[in-house]
Inverse folding.
């Protein structure tokens, strides 16, 4: 889609456009779809399922030629439109830091494993 690094506004516009398209196809809002903003939660407020989110991310990957979820950002951390925009901004900025998410994920996995081991005892 783009030959240069897209701005935050371009990314937001593209994301909102594709969310609107998905919701219109689902007829989830009976044609009364209001404004979609950065603060909207993808699942709870907009009604996107995990399959819808996968479709959205695949479409964005094709349009933006970018996949921030391959290594930079865990898709499970994306809850809002803003989170999604931020993931693509991070990709295009070249920022490879995870903001401590890898450590948090590792700690979460350790706690889950400990709970499983304790429940088997």
């Amino acid at each position: 889609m783009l030959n240069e690094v897209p701005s935050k506004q371009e990314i937001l516009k593209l994301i909102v456009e594709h969310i609107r398209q998905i919701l219109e196809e689902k007829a989830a809002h009976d044609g009364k779809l209001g404004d979609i903003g950065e603060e909207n939660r993808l699942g709870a407020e907009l009604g996107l399922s995990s399959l819808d989110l996968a479709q959205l991310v695949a479409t964005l990957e094709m349009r933006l030629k970018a996949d921030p979820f391959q290594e930079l950002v865990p898709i499970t951390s994306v809850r809002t439109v803003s989170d999604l925009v931020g993931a693509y901004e991070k990709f295009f900025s070249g920022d490879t830091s995870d903001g401590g998410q890898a450590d948090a994920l590792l700690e979460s996995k350790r706690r889950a494993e400990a709970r499983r081991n304790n429940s088997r005892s």
Summary: The mean pLDDT is 83.
